[in-house]
Design brief:
The protein has 305 residues and is of the alpha/beta class. It has two domains: 193 residues, Rossmann fold (3-Layer(aba) Sandwich); 99 residues, no CATH class. It is built from nine helices and 14 strands. The strands form three sheets. It has an eight-stranded mixed β-sheet. A four-stranded antiparallel β-sheet has the order 7-8-10-9. α3 links the parallel β3 and β4.
Length: 305
């Protein structure tokens, strides 16, 4: 077989599964967060529902299930709070009441509920410490398990500021130091690092995260594949993301695509390809029209000449 033919076949892959980040990938990072609004543009959401009728579409996010529930109704699996909780989910078109999660097949936690409950107290202490310091320019997003009983993560968010780059440079280091002091002061010396809360930072994004247990999107990626139970090869899995915490998943996927949704951000991504946010619906629709066979040419459809 000629070299050109081999290269062409390598670039064309029958897609079996799509995994995607949510915030900054399917909706812009600059989107105003609301309790009921869906951050995914309506046209893109319709395309994602069309895809989910053909193959599983799954979400790997730092958000919790309550936040994601009605925002990613097309998803087969929701890997929440960076994989701390994995939820098998029945895609649905109608709006389910927030307290009536009958779309859940089952869910499991990455570690024992007792470990997470112990660290939940520590996370509550961090929230109290930040509030006592009277940081006026931040919002604190508390993330719970789907039963709403265990605090499993926090996001310290300042994306609403006009000049959040200055805040990141001048004030975020002090916030990180305060959080780390709380973690160190409340852990026993024999605590395994695997079960300690940890801080996720970003080079350019206007927030930082604190998680109740060690987790990352590479582990979440593997857990989602186990739950789908269809024997997908990683080469036939596409992953979409926009920030550094997506890199472990990018490295495990056969087709890795970074999404640019905010020109003020310039993260270093391990994705093989890049798309602007407004190109994503065009690309996904072209993928459907091409019978879910990925080729690099699909990434250029609709680009300005």
């Amino acid at each position: 077989m000629c070299i050109d033919c081999i290269m062409s076949s390598m670039k064309r892959k029958q897609l079996n599964l799509i995994l995607s980040d949510y915030d900054g990938t399917l909706c812009p990072t600059t989107s105003v967060k609301g309790n009921t609004s869906n951050g995914i543009p309506q046209g893109l959401e319709k395309i994602l529902f069309r895809l989910s009728d053909r193959i599983p579409v799954c979400i790997i996010s730092s958000k919790d299930f309550t936040y994601l529930h009605n925002r990613v109704r097309f998803a087969k699996v929701l890997s929440c709070v960076l994989g701390t909780e994995t939820v098998i989910h029945k895609p649905h078109y109608g709006d389910y009441k927030i307290d009536n999660f009958d779309c859940i097949g089952y869910q499991y936690l990455i570690t024992s509920s007792q470990s997470l409950m112990d660290n939940s107290k520590l996370l509550h202490n961090i929230v109290e410490s930040l509030q006592n310091q009277k940081y006026k320019d931040i919002t604190i997003e508390e993330k719970y398990d789907s039963a709403k009983e265990i605090l499993i993560g926090l996001t310290i968010d300042y994306r609403h500021l006009d000049n959040w780059q200055l805040f990141k440079e001048n004030k975020e280091p002090g916030i990180r130091e305060l959080i780390q002091r709380n973690i160190n002061a409340n852990l026993t010396t024999n605590s395994s690092s695997k079960y300690r809360p940890f801080i996720q930072t970003y080079s350019s994004h206007p927030f930082l995260d604190v998680y109740g247990v060690e987790c990352n999107k590479g582990l979440a990626f593997e857990n989602v594949l186990l739950q789908i139970k269809q024997g997908e090869r990683e080469g036939n899995v596409m992953y979409l993301g926009d920030s550094e915490n997506d890199n472990p998943a990018f490295r495990k996927s056969g087709i890795s695509i970074g999404i640019r949704s905010d020109l003020r951000l310039n993260p270093i991504l391990d994705s093989r390809y890049m798309l602007d946010f407004n190109q994503l619906p065009i690309f996904l629709k072209s993928l459907i029209d091409n019978d879910l066979i990925f080729s690099e040419e699909l990434l250029t459809i609709g680009h300005a000449k």
